[in-house]
Design goal:
By secondary structure, the chain is of the alpha+beta class. It has two domains: 174 residues, Acetylglutamate kinase-like (Carbamate kinase); 321 residues, VC0802-like (2-Layer Sandwich). It is built from 15 helices and 27 strands. The strands form five sheets. Strands 13, 14, 15, 16, 17, 18, 19, 20, 25, 26 and 27 form an eleven-stranded mixed sheet that branches. The chain has an eight-stranded mixed sheet with strand order 3-6-2-1-9-11-12-10, with helices on both faces. Helix 10 packs antiparallel against helix 12. It is globular. It binds adenosine-5'-diphosphate (ADP), aspartic acid (ASP) and magnesium ion (MG). The site of aspartic acid (ASP) has 13 residues, from helix 5. The site of magnesium ion has 3 residues, from loops.
Length: 590
């Protein structure tokens, strides 16, 4: 008999009628002979309302008490759903996270799942019962040895469901929600977003951490690492929904559920060149022109970084393979003859990348990569971060030294090390989906010393405060004293922690100062076909330029390109990119 884990989100159990209709759906499934574990979220906006109550009493309520409070939301819905199932003659039993054996670490408000003790669950399933589990919560043992309630972080019921499916080796995990599946973008922002038939876990991980809130990124991480069959579909219809696909070679199936090793591969790509244009005009269309010209010249660009402007000029840095350096140089020269600016170009570079699931969700990982390289005396020419990969461009003569140091730090074996992989087309689209995130802010630390270890120190201090940095950009140009600027974006909710985390560094770097940029929106495009397609970036920048929107910052990683624009331009930029890649009329059957 098949064992399914089904999860119903807040809207799906938002009122009594909906709970009854979910119960009907479960009953029909049970009649087909399936074994069922059902995970539910709190009803409707309960979690927001409970948070509001606490915040009306205190700006900084203790995290333990918040967990105690928020966990009650799910307890209401499991009981009501079980009652509704009994009414239909289905034997059901509701269970809290603690009762069902979801053991987490102790970090209140964002606890990761360590283990699920499945004995009780299995015995109830053997008795033919439908087990209704409270999502989003678990239990941990306090220092004094007593049990404490923990929560997994907002949206965490998805993670509870996929973790249960992994622990029980269920045949599939189905996430039922208020949209027909994963769409090409958020339908609340772009009305003609289309349903995807499938998407790879890596693409979904990127999209989920870039603002596509349809799945909790940690749920996708578990699905990828444990090979869980994961489907997202509508609570209101019988449409098939979206199937997530995972690369069998990445399945690790190790103990520790969410505490598995975050880095599962290291890659070295030699023969790279870095081109940097500085002092170019800061106005719409410049990046579009540059990358369109490169694409017309058949130059495939890899990483792109554009930093915040100083005054009214910009710097754009990008990498190509060394064999395309001359072609790229000529294109750049032609452009700066027309628009002004300076060009520097150098070959003899190597790109070193670490890959895994949930790298951004674990701030310590990028910090530890940068720290390893800085301890080996290696300067980072370029940094690209993402949920599934962090890459650094370094001098080629230090490539092997860097590889040795990094494989040691992350305990990577030879099978997980790839040198100069062949770029092979995988039939995936260049852009599978796009996302908008308005919960980020842009910060710059001005006038930091230009020496190995600067980015590492910055990242490490932020990581200690639990903050991940995205789009870390080291400025191309130097101040008169040789110092540079480093800009990054990070979650708005971490702003106050960041101030504290940076105090010791600012004290150590005389003259350095922190500056917050204007309100921003990040628009991102994600597609596994991006590395093998020439011209994706140019197309995206052109779509934004055609709306007369200026791009303040660009950051790419292997399968994603992100542009930071003014907050007010976010939706227009998102719509323009969505349309330019034909996503409003896709037939994604690839
Ligand atoms: P649930 O309560 O079921 O967990 P969520 O609100 O967490 O539901 O997630 C579903 C919502 O995610 C949708 O209503 C939609 O607005 C939003 N969303 C954002 N990006 C996407 C996307 N790419 N595809 C589908 N939905 C998306
Ligand atoms: N109820 C929790 C929240 O609103 C968990 C979830 O719905 O996934 O964040
Ligand atoms: Mg959700």
């Amino acid at each position: 008999m098949a064992l399914l884990v089904q999860k119903f989100g807040g809207t799906s159990v938002g009122n009594v009628e909906r709970i009854q209709s979910v119960a009907q759906r479960i009953a029909s499934c049970k009649e087909l002979g399936q074994d069922l574990v059902v995970v539910v979220s709190a009803m409707g906006h309960t979690t927001d309302e409970l948070t509001g109550l606490a915040k009306s009493i205190s700006k900084t309520p203790p995290q333990r008490e918040m967990d105690m409070l928020l966990a009650t939301g799910e307890q209401v819905s499991i009981a009501l759903l079980s009652i509704a199932l009994h009414e239909l003659g289905i034997q059901a039993i509701s269970m809290t996270g603690a009762q069902v054996g979801i053991v987490t670490e102790s970090a209140h408000g964002k606890a990761r799942i360590l283990e699920i003790k499945t004995e009780r669950l299995k015995s109830l399933l053997n008795q033919g019962k439908v087990v209704v589990v409270a999502g989003f919560q678990g239990t941990t043992t306090s220092q004094g040895g007593t049990a404490e309630i923990t929560t997994l972080g907002r949206g965490g019921s998805d993670t509870s469901a996929v973790a249960l499916a992994a622990a029980l080796k269920a045949d599939a995990c189905e996430i039922y929600t208020d949209v027909p599946g994963v769409l090409t973008t958020d339908p609340r922002k772009v009305a003609n977003a289309q349903l995807m038939k499938e998407i790879s876990c890596d693409e979904m991980l990127e999209l989920a951490s870039l603002g596509a809130a349809v799945l909790h990124p940690r749920a996708v991480e578990i699905a990828r690492n444990y090979g869980v069959t994961l489907i997202v579909r509508s609570s209101w219809s019988d449409q098939e929904g979206t199937q997530l696909t995972s690369d069998a070679s990445k399945i690790i199936k190790q103990e520790g559920l969410e505490l598995g090793r975050p880095v599962d591969g290291v890659e070295l790509v030699e023969g790279q060149a870095v081109l940097a244009l500085s002092h170019i005009p800061d106005k719409p269309g410049i990046a579009a022109k540059l990358f369109e010209s490169l694409s017309n010249g058949k130059v495939n660009v890899d990483l792109i970084i554009q930093s915040t402007h100083e005054g009214n000029s910009n710097d754009i840095t990008f990498t190509v393979t060394e064999s395309e350096l001359n072609k790229a140089k000529n294109v750049c020269k032609e452009l700066i003859e027309k628009i002004g600016g300076k060009l520097s170009a150098e070959g003899g570079m190597t790109k070193l990348s670490i890959s895994g699931a949930g790298i951004m969700g674990r701030p310590g990982v990028a910090a530890s990569l940068f720290d390893t390289l800085s301890r080996a005396g290696i300067n980072l020419r370029l940094i690209a971060t993402s949920e599934v990969k962090v890459s650094c461009v370094i001098n080629a003569n230090l490539g092997n030294k860097a590889l040795r140091a990094v494989t040691e730090t992350f305990e990577i074996n030879e099978n997980q090390t790839i040198i100069n992989p062949l770029l092979m087309s995988n039939n995936a689209p260049e852009v599978r989906g796009v996302a908008l995130d308005t919960n980020q802010i842009q910060l710059s630390v001005k006038k930091v010393p230009d020496q190995p270890g600067t980015a590492a120190a910055l990242c490490a201090n932020m990581a200690d405060a639990g903050i991940s940095l995205d789009a870390i950009v080291q400025s191309e140009r130097q101040h008169e004293d040789g110092s540079r600027d480093i800009s990054f974006i990070m979650k708005r909710e971490h702003r106050n922690h960041a101030d504290k985390a940076l105090v010791p560094l600012l004290a150590q770097w005389p003259g350095a100062e922190l500056e917050e940029g204007p309100a921003i929106a990040r628009v991102s495009a994600v597609g596994a076909g991006m590395p093998t397609t020439t011209g994706t970036a140019g197309k995206m920048f052109r779509a934004i330029a055609d709306e007369n929107i200026n791009i303040a910052m660009i950051a790419t990683s292997e399968i994603r390109t992100s542009c930071v624009v003014a907050e007010a331009d976010g939706i227009s930029a998102l719509k323009a990119v969505h349309q330019r890649f034909g996503l409003d009329s896709v037939n994604q059957e690839i």
